[in-house]
Amino acid sequence: MSDTTYAATEEGSATAVDIARNPAQRALPLHRELSRVWANDKGLWGQITAVSHTTLGLRFMATAFVFFAIGGILSMLIRAQLATHDGAFLDTEIYNQIFTMHGSIMMFLFAIPMLEGLAIWLLPKLLGTRDMAFPRLTSLGYWCYLFGGLIMLTALLFGVAPRDGWFMYTPLSSAAHSPGINADVWLLGVTFVEISAIAAAVEITVTILRQRAPGMKLTQMPLFAWYMLGTSAMMLVGFPPLIAGSILLELERAFDWPFFDIARGGDPLLWQHLFWLFGHPEVYIIFLPAAGAMSMIIPVMCRTKILGYGAIVAAVLGLVFLSFGLWVHHMFTVGIPHMALAFFSAASVLVAVPTAVQVFAWIGTMWKGQPQLHLPMYHILGFFLTFVMGGLTGVMLAIVPFNWQAHDTAFVTAHLHYVLIGGFVFPMMAAVTYWMPLITGRSRIKGLGETAFWVIVIGFHGTFFIMHLTGLLGMPRRIDVYPDNPEWIWLNLTSSVFSFVLTIGFAMFALDLLLQITLGKREKRDPWAAPTLDWAMPMPSPNYNYASLPTLRHLDRPARDVIMPLARGEGALPGAPRGRRELLVTRAIGAEPDHVAILPGNTALPLVLAASICAFVLLMLASLYLVAAFALIPVAAFIWLWGRGMSPVGDLSPVEIAPGTILPVHHRAKQSLGQSGLVALLVADGTLFGSLIFGLAFLSVVTQGPAAGIAGAENFATLVGIGIIAALLVIAAWAARGMTRMAAMIGVAVNLAAILVLIWLKWTQMDDPTGHARDALRAVVAGYVALHIIVATGLAAFVANQHARGEIDQVTRGAHPAWRAWQGFTAATALLAMVILLAQAFA
Amino acid sequence: MKRVFALPTALLVAGCDSPLSTLAPAGPVASDIAWLWGVMLVGAGLITALVIVLIILAFRRPSETNARFWTHGMGLWFSMIVLTLLLGAGLWVGERIQPRDDEAVIVRAHAFQWGWEFSHEGPDGDMIASSDLLHIPAGRPVDVLITAEDVIHSFWVPRLAGKMDAIPGRTNRTRLVADSPGEYDGLCAEFCGLDHAFMRFSVQAHENWPPDLSEAAQ
Fold first, then answer.
1. pTM of structure
2. B51: nearest CB among A388, A480, A484
3. Exposed e or buried b for every residue in A389-416, given b needs 16+ CB within 10 A?
4. Which of A25, A60, A339, A661 lies at a 20 to 30 A Cα distance from A638?
């Protein structure tokens, strides 16, 4: 293999979207060959080491459903307590834990993982590829989700669960007012779970942008992919503020750094801003995937094509943009001036417009076609009825004066259940019933599903419709008894009775799925006669999805016409002749073929890494902070091992994916999936940095607390120290541009020196972070920079090691691009942080 | 027109014997908001009915339909017009009920876990404190200055006005108006820990101001 072949393939046929047909083969041997390479290992061990998107997507969804059931049982306890006015059923402490856990479980352990699971399971099938971009990351995300969820559930069993409401307002959740580990369970547990959200967002983004079938332009991809692209962008920007807030609150609780303590220049409203900067986009993070599923299902159910594709894409982009401008509508009663509220009120109202565009496009699609009442369609009608009403009460709540009355009452409880069950649970039920044949290969047993639907609709509206009135009659959220308000009794009793009907409905829905899995007859391929790629494969879907990958000629055709050509290997990259997991990577906009990615196989490393992070979290919970710091050493070691797994070893010769189309493997590609993933991760990382800077600005400008002491930065020694760090980081960033072992060694040395100077600054110059909130936040920013320099050191050392092993050169670049990007990001954020800190010190 | 308002009126009647009902306003601030609610309820009812009818009609035979009618006509213009009108009404009401610099009586509300400390200006200019009972004049605007001792609470007298949070380190201001003398119920609306459900208080609106509390006590 020479470099000339590489150059030739890159400039030559590689960019042509039109890929020649591969010769047809016999389907069965192809299937066997692929199964051997792509299948999970056998038995329980196989479940531990599985990295397949099909296995993990389904497991995400199944686990989320179990958490849904647990959250549902908690809600039954709440409704039992409220059925009478003196609720002698639960004591207040337990009741507070239960409603906090109900909300937290439904948000963080059901809704988010459910949509991640659907996307992970469905996207590769829909886009015409064989797996997600980073299979091991999918698995890591799953284990972090499971372990974080189990930590929270265990706390509930031992009666030490979070009890401050699912949005954890300070100072109620501070160490002074919430002693014990209850709040820490929330902060550490949820943050642990959010590793899976960030991981999913990164790989969803990369998969959609880089793994579409050749020729599937951005503007032609199935709408679900557009919705998920919007969702993952929102997750990358929406979750970091929550993670930042959780880290700050945990630091305050553990080390008395007073970010939210007014006596020392902190501000409880900073928490609310950070929380809702996440919390409102979160609502659309949950809604968009559900809406995406409906945009796929409605046209199929109506035997037509979607109406207004362009308008829907525009609406999705509009929603993504607007959703970041309306977090303050959760804070209309905190005392912000009315004219400032008017802006957020307008934004909150405006967000209804793109939602309306989608709803009317779906109704128009139903007019255009002929709706057929299959079971998924029932749930879609349930969506329309429920979500439209929830959307309208949402508009009401966006109107400031009405919000002042309805805020924090049962009216809001009713509204949010209309939006979340209407806008998420009904579409998810439509999605599950629609894709069940592909999941199980079996058809449904008629009757039970329809009955379950009606029971759910009656139970839901019976519970929550009347709750609007309960709220308007003055019943606040989160109370456990109301002895002085007999007028609320019949309202609450009604809600409680119907809530049990609702639960029975969900149980019937689950039973229907179980029956389909166990007793259903074999379903024929493509049962809905769909026009999308997800149905152009055997049922149940095999781990490898396609025996050969769809190309331009297989797009926009009925699935039944392309099943056989793909199964016979006529598409690109047929079979697994090299005995490794391969898929085709394309370019972001036009989907021209770019290179062939070789994916990792089954491995237990994700489980081991997640377990080591779990050990760190548990030690933090036990307040063993010093030991916890040492627990990060195995975490770092496993990440190193993870990186070793990506080393360019083995056969690196170019691959002929079809007659005349020869592509390089990803180790020698210009822009690999890993590099795209790092860019996505840095977007989230940069948002985290931005959240900290937002906090610093907020405490300086808005908070009316005692002034900060004189920052140590005025000291000459500090200035010299900061100057040295800046110079060292610039040198490191320059070194990272060189492709030699020497450059990597310089990188290690310079980063280490920067860490030493930073440590010296911390011990000799920095103000005590417990003294004032702004000093504490400056210390966090310094810590952020330090952490990034440490990671940069590790990356430089990793690259030096790859040079020493002789694995990398000018063409095969190994981890070098990752180090370069990270080092540049580190230098940029560090310099920015220095400028801001100095400006604050001298202002 | 009468029939259009029948439903909200029925709900208003249902709210009459409810001491915490936002639908039984006892002053202009709460009345304005209740009016806003009535308008929104009717509008929301009509829009829900419209959507249901459109969906039922979709089950007829397939018809050639203009995509722009749905995405631009209904999605964009219809919703924009409705929402703009509503936003305008909301801002108008919001401005009307704002505290402003006029002859409003100033009283104070201080929230703590779990109770309220109120104070108003007595006849001789001293501040008179009272626990879980707030004295205000009837028929005059009253601005409540709201503070908190420990965690976040929220001051709410549903029949007189909307709620306003009590936040440590901040002083918030909200306006109450009671049309006639009497007692009105209030509560803490923001979850504040164990005894949140019992953090109730009363508002006594007096004919004469400052009130003669010795007489009121009798």
1. 0.95
2. A388
3. bbbbbbbbbbbbbbbbbbbbbbbbbbbb
4. A60
